[in-house]
C-alpha cells in the first residue's frame, strides 16, 4: 500500500480547477452500453475507479480508449454479459452495467460487489427494480443471474432513494417497452447528469432531479458526445481544505448550486463563501474561528452529502466548541474518528454518531484510510496538524481524487506520495 505524506501548518492559497465528477462519469460510462454507436465523453477524471469501469466495458466487448482528454467508447460489438468477478470486487459501481446489459442483451451475470468499506451496502433495490421491469433473477454460488425476454415499463417505488438503484433502473428503462415511473427516486445532480446524457442518446426522461422520474422507452438509442459535470465532492473537499488551513482559494468549474448543504454550514462558522458566478466560488477563512456548536446530519440530496462527512469532521476539529455529526446514509461510516484520535483529536463516536470537541491542536501521526472519503478527511486533518502525517492507503484515496498531492501542492500545501 502506498502513502500520502502531509506536513501540516501551511495556508492553502490560489486557484484550482475542479475535475469532472467520478460518480456522474461511472453510470454514464455504463449507460454507453445502450448506445448503437460511438460515445465520446469529455471531462472524465483520470482515476482508478474509471480504469476499472473501462476494464468492465472492455470485458463485455466494447472498445474503449482515450484520445487526449476524451474518453471514447465504441459499444457496437458488446456481446458478453458476465461482469468479471475480480472487477466487481474492486468497485461497487460495476453493478451499474447490469441494467444496461439486461436492456441490450437480455442477460447479465454479476457478483456481490466490493468497493468502499462503509456498511453492508445490499443490492436489493437494484434487483427488485430490475425484476419489476420484467427480469428474472436468481443467485447461484455467489453469482447474481438476471434474464429477460423483454423489459416492460412499470412503476417502481424505491423504499429508499438509492442513487445507484435509481440510475440502474433508469438505464434499463430507456430501452423497455412503454413508460417507467420511479417513485422516491434519488435526486442527486449525478442522476440529472445521467438523464441528460441519456437524452442526448435519444431517450425521453422527465423529472430527473425530483423524486418522481418518468422514462419513455425507445427501440434504439444512437451515439453522442457529452461533457460530464464537475465533481461536487472534490469541490467540497478542496473548499474545506482551504477553510481549515486558514487559507483563501478560488474554485473554478465548481457548480455552486450542487453543494446546497455545505456553503451554509461553512458560513455559519465564519468562513466567507463568495459566489463569483454559477461556476466559481471563493473560500476565505476567517482569522479565527469563533466558538460555537455545529450539529450536522448527512442525508440524501439535497441534504448534506455523506461523501463530505469525513472532510467536514476534519474541518470541525479546527472549530472551537462541541459538535455533533450523525451519519444517516451509511451505517458504518465514522471509522475515521478513530484515526483522527491518533492525531490528538477529541472525538467520541459509535457507528452512527460522533461528538467532536473542536479547537484542539492536532499532531502528525501514522493513520490509515479505510475508505476513499475517510482518506480525504485524513489528508485534510494532516494539513491542519502540527508535524508530519503519514496516511496509509494511497490507492484507496486515488480511487476518487486525481493528482491530489500535486494539486494541493500547487495551492501551497506540503504533500507528497510514497
Ligand atoms: C453512491 O453510492 C455513490 N457512489 C457513493 O459515493 C455515495 O456515498 C452514495 O451514492 C450516497 O450518496 C457512486 O455514485 C458510484 P446508495 P450508492 O445506493 O449508489 C442502501 C464515494 O465515496 N441501499 O444511494 O451505492 C445503502 O446500503 C462513494 O464516491 C440498500 O439498502 O449509494 C446505503 O445505506 C461511496 N439497498 C443507502 O442505501 C440497495 O439496493 C444509500 O446507498 C442500495 C442501497
UniProtKB/TrEMBL annotation:
Pfam families: EPSP_synthase (PF00275). The keyword Cell cycle applies. The active site is at 116 (proton donor). Phosphoenolpyruvate binds at residues 22-23. GO terms for cellular component: cytoplasm. Its EC number is 2.5.1.7. The keyword Mitochondrion does not apply. Residues 6-408 form the Enolpyruvate transferase domain. SUPFAM superfamilies: EPT/RTPC-like (SSF55205). GO terms for molecular function: UDP-N-acetylglucosamine 1-carboxyvinyltransferase activity. Keywords: Cell cycle, Cell division, Cell shape, Cell wall biogenesis/degradation, Cytoplasm, Peptidoglycan synthesis, Pyruvate, Transferase. Its main location: cytoplasm. Belongs to the EPSP synthase family. MurA subfamily. Cell wall formation. Adds enolpyruvyl to UDP-N-acetylglucosamine. This is UDP-N-acetylglucosamine 1-carboxyvinyltransferase.
